[in-house]
Write a structure and sequence with these properties.
The protein is of the alpha/beta class and 453 residues long. It has 12 helices and 16 strands. It has 2 domains: 156 residues, Alpha-Beta Complex (Aspartate Aminotransferase, domain 1); 271 residues, 3-Layer(aba) Sandwich (Aspartate Aminotransferase, domain 2). It has a 7-stranded mixed sheet with strand order 3-11-10-9-8-4-5, with helices on both faces. Strands 12-13-16-15 form a 4-stranded antiparallel sheet. It is globular and about 65 Å long. The mean pLDDT is 96. It binds pyridoxal-5'-phosphate.
Length: 453
């Protein structure tokens, strides 16, 4: 398959007979989960960039990139090469917090990156925040769990955790206690105590989300965070707060971008009060928005970042002073011992650097957004277009319409995903080209025309 010439090509309307066969086979014993439609990627068939082949031979264009976890698309030669070099060594996962895994005699002259090298790389791309420590784990949820554990340990106050409406931080019990996007994530699961949610302000003009309130006592408008922590009228002493955790751009919750003033005030209050600020960049980080970390767009300096997805391993990265001094406080069998994923994660960062993909994400993101805005002007059922770099979304009038658009695109060979309640998210690979974006825009145009006529 040649990327430059590939186009989505539907031979059999998906899901075709083989896709149905695989779906039935898989779902016979697989637990119910979040399967949205029966797109079945055939890993044995050609795939490159955003293009891949399904089990019925359809060529699909993937603008979800496995929810951002395949940031260079399919089969990037650098990644295939790295995996090939170490795939023959077993075990590929080892007890990495008990034994350090090396490759050769000298870490400086090492042909394959190890988890140790990945720490160095993560610290390098976070030097603007003064970060000096990293801990690798298996998933985004674990990266969040470790971030909050580090903060509870640092604060020694069994304290409050502040999160925001619309947030999604993962599925393990600690992380899901911080979720505020959909009740299905939390219903009937026990939670960690003392979690306080605050409005996530994405207001563009007048703030009407509840973040700003009029305080009679203060005789003026103040933010909800300032009110909660106010020494006279507040209900919580800042000393009792273990952390504030925020996604600079809501992911699962709807791709809403934080109002810059809002997120800066959150950071300013956190730093003033000595409360650790965690940025959950599991979806928005690692170049997706055209910067290494989305918080950079707002001039915000977090104390800790949770990363995963595009990195292929979970990572909790931060200022060294926040990490536990005591041994055995954080650990994970495979976290620091995931040889293939860590080498691939390292190579992903290296490739983003070598191929100048932050710039591409910014430029192609602007190009894509302007195309989406043109669609918006032609189809008023599109309510909103928003995004930063290649983390983009549209909202339509109803969730039913949203689902029909996603299904319609699927039938034409374009893979998309939902977020929030009426939104469609776009996460093409960071090396996406203008030609590929034009193909996606044309398909969307056809889908909207067909649905609305
Ligand atoms: C912002 C954010 N945080 C945390 C997570 C959890 O990551 P994982 O599914 O790897 O546990 C996700 C996953 O969608 C996410 O988008």
């Amino acid at each position: 398959m040649e990327r430059e010439k590939a186009i989505p090509l539907i031979k059999v309307p998906p899901p075709g007979p083989n896709a149905r066969k695989w779906a039935q086979f898989h779902k016979m014993y697989a637990a119910h989960s979040t399967y949205f439609y029966d797109f079945i990627w055939d890993r044995s068939k050609p795939a490159i960039g955003p293009f891949c082949t399904d089990v019925d031979g359809n060529i699909m264009m993937d603008f979800v990139s496995h929810v951002g976890s395949s940031p260079l698309g399919y089969n990037h030669p650098n990644l295939v090469e790295v995996a090939k070099k170490i795939a023959t060594i077993d075990p590929d996962r080892y007890a990495g917090t008990d034994f350090i895994g090396a490759f050769g005699e000298d870490p400086i002259d090492c042909p394959i990156a190890t988890p140790s090298h990945l720490h160095h790389k993560l610290v390098e791309i976070s030097q603007q925040f003064g970060f000096g420590s990293a801990f690798l784990s298996n998933s985004g949820a674990e990266a969040v769990e470790n971030a909050i554990k580090i903060c509870y340990d640092y604060r020694r106050n069994f304290g409050y955790g502040f999160c925001f409406y619309g947030a999604f931080h993962g599925r393990t019990l600690g992380a899901l206690s911080l979720n505020r996007s959909k009740k299905v994530h939390r219903n009937w699961y026990p939670e960690i105590p003392k979690i306080v949610e605050l409005p996530f302000c994405r207001c563009q003009q007048q703030c009407d989300c509840g973040w700003k309130i009029y305080s009679i006592r203060r005789k003026g408008v103040i933010s909800r965070l300032a009110q909660v922590l106010d020494p006279d009228i507040g209900l919580i002493d800042p000393e009792e707060v273990a952390y504030i955790i925020i996604e600079p751009i809501l992911g699962e919750g709807g791709y809403d971008i934080a109002n810059p003033e809002f997120i800066r005030e959150v950071a300013e209050i956190a730093h003033r009060e000595g409360i650790p600020l965690i940025a959950d960049e599991i979806q928005s980080g690692l170049g997706r928005t055209g910067r290494w970390w989305a918080v950079e767009h707002f001039g915000v300096v977090p104390d800790i970042i949770a990363s995963a997805k595009a990195l292929r391993v979970g990572a909790t990265i931060g200022k060294s002073t926040f990490f536990p001094r005591e041994e055995k406080r954080i650990s994970s069998t495979w976290g620091e011992g995931n040889a293939i994923s860590s080498a691939v994660g390292y190579q992903i960062i290296q490739t983003i650097q070598e191929e100048d993909l932050l710039k591409n994400a910014e430029e192609m993101g602007n190009y894509f957004l302007s195309g989406l805005r043109q669609l918006h002007s032609r189809f008023p059922v599109i309510h909103d277009v928003r995004g930063l770099g290649l983390m983009d979304a549209i909202s339509v009038e109803t969730d039913d319409l949203r689902n029909r658009v996603i299904q319609g695109a699927f039938q034409k060979g374009l893979l998309l995903a939902s977020c929030g309640f009426e939104s469609i998210r776009f996460l093409p690979p960071l090396n996406v080209t203008q030609r590929e974006i034009d193909i996606a825009l044309n398909i969307l145009e056809d889908v909207f025309s067909e649905i609305l006529t």
